[in-house]
Amino acid sequence: MTLALVTDSAACLPPALARAHGIDVVALHALPGQGAQAGTTARPSVEQLAEAYARALEGADEVLAVHLASALSGTVDNARLAARGLGEAVTVLDSGACAGALGLAVLAACDAPDARTGAARARESASRSHLFFLVEDLSHLRRGGRIDRATALVGSALGIRPVLESGPEGISVVETVRGAARARRHLIAQAVHAAGGTALTGPRPPAAPVRLAVHYGDDPGDGRALENDLAEAMAEAGAVVDSILRSPVDEAIRVHLGPGALGVVVAPALAPSR
Q: Which Gene3D superfamilies match (predicted)?
């Protein structure tokens, strides 16, 4: 039995990497604003998803479709509608994750022999992942309905930069700090702590091998610098890093984050599927 993987562009997988693993990526849509109206986004249509699944089935017995968290998008709703017309050959999974947490979950499923095993591996990777990120202005997230008014107010105070986390329930504030440089240091510290390092005080998870993803908004140099600083901090703290994936934030996600966003994902390095 052969398995094909499909995901959406919220996974932030570099195209060459997706092709190398035979992953079909369906694009989310970034829609430009008009006049004073801000840009917005749209989920892939049922027809687009059905076409992707049917195309994947041409070369496989089963399809596992792993999609963006339902707390952030209705993509998985359309995915389930699309899968209905193709019978039991298509399995749709709400990853509860976004960006690299989603991308690394899909990669974890790539060597699975069937959809059931692949879904279990993707679910385990996503459920044990942490996505921390920074934005320059919370108003973009507020306008898109991704955070509530109370959370948006946290970042309205002069100089305050919250470190945010995205999970199955949506976006939350992990901690607030003053100043962009300090917020970046705390972003790295949160990632080191999640990886089992010793950057923060308090109870720590065991230092099991992890895979990392680094995301940047506009400047690739920001991504490279963050990757270098993160790798150095992980090594100093004794974290065990299996790999680091670096990629820009997907265009549709960028609509909700605004310019200058930075993100770090910590995911488990799962043993190969047997």
A: 3.30.1180.10, 3.40.50.10170
36, two tokens: 């004073």
- List the structure tokens of 177: 């700090």
Estimate the crossing angle of helix 115-127 against helix 99-109, to 10 degrees.
150
Give a yes or no: residue 273 inside a domain: no
The answer to the question of residue 200 being in a domain is yes
Residue with token string 């339902």? 70
Which amino acid is residue 264, in one-letter code? Answer: V
Decide if 100 is inside a domain: yes
Cα(57)–Cα(48) distance, rounded to whole angstroms?
Answer: 14
In a domain, 222, yes or no: yes
Give the C-alpha separation, 158 to 39, whole Å: 26
C-alpha atoms less than 13 angstroms from C-alpha of 156 in its C-beta half-sphere: 10
Q: What is the pTM of this model?
A: 0.92
168-202 pLDDT, tens digit per residue, is 988 888 998 999 999 999 999 999 999 987 655 55
Contact between 187 and 132 under an 8 Å Cβ cutoff? The reply is yes
Residues 214 and 113 grouped into a single domain? no
